[in-house]
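Subgroup meeting minutes
Present: P.N., E.W., G.H.
Scribe: E.W.

1. P.N. recapped why we're keeping a running log of single-chain structure predictions: easier to compare across weeks, and new members can see raw inputs and outputs side by side.
2. G.H. added today's entry (406 aa).
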Amino acid sequence: MKWVNFSKFTGDDFGIDAQDLMDALANFFLESGFSDPRMQGSPWDQQTLDALTDAIRQALESGELFSDGDVQRLLEKLAAMSPEEMDQLLEGLVQKLASEGLISVNQENANGKAGGEGQTRFEVTDKSVDFLGFKTLKDLLGSLGKASFGRHDTRDLATGIESSGSSKLYEFGDTLNLDISETLFSAMRREGVKVPLNLEYSDLHVHQAEYQSSCATVLMLDCSHSMILYGEDRFTPAKRVAMALAHLIRTQYPGDSLRCVLFHDSAEELNIKQLARAQVGPYYTNTRDGLILAQKLLQQERKDMKQIVMITDGKPSALTLEDGRIYRNAFGLDPLVISRTLEEVNRCKKQGIIINTFMLASDYGLIQFVQKITELCRGKAYFTTPDTLGQYLLMDYMNRKTRTVH
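Output recorded in log:
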């Protein structure tokens, strides 16, 4: 792979650091193909440095990279720059992103092979994905008025380090977090107050802590083309929420797990690290394939709770037949598709898997279908919009820290 070598930037970069750039370019990095129909369904690595420099130029000219008190002065200074100075500034800012490890840049030709006289492309790195997830989570929690959060509480008690319940006699397998006072009192009650004091196995008492459960979650994201049609981008907000949820679990609920499934004409697992690069497509909504794959992933997890979080805006409209062919009905509510999909919902119920559905549309047929899912799987249905999706989903997830698990 041939790497691009930037020349040393010697001009004024207006004091803009890499984090400021990431804040300003977050929408650009997470773009799902809504603003440019030619990008719909294309892979993320088709993004070029020309597109990145154009995005930086727009951010500069809008003034969002400058502090409020200096906006006018810096915009005038920016307008006075020659084309050569502007190019050097943009190149220096791109170089700053690359040197901070936020993007990786390579030279590829049009058919994707390294080398040649092709376009210069870039990819966002794992560091960028983590930054974008943290930023989204912080923004969402700020809007909810939440400053701290913990793990999922239950009404059961277990032996552990953080004691919050009464003592109990030690049993083999308990965490040896001794309640010294109760242990000594037990020995004194048996032998009286004397020195030395003989301790026996039956004297040992340990602290009890609240038993905190772990949860395995599969996030099912609808990436059919309806997610960017009808004048609204629904897929990019869904990606943002998924990244925020992944960051929340990794940093605050380390015992939990999160895996992601994209469903369209079929379904496939998507590594959370690749989420920012995901695009919309193909066309139809194969909810059944998504549920089948989600169940397989949850079977691999040994957790107390298992749940599927499904984000969708359309009725199931596709089905994979036994011979591998895809049966499609663009109008939705096809009896064959619905019945086969509900069969998978029933299988989830038998395995104790909860399905919570977040609907980004209010279509009557979709409402009926989702209501049937909630009846079968003791889950919940949320009618939401791209703007409120994150608040609903994160609140539902974090409420488990105060919700009693039966």
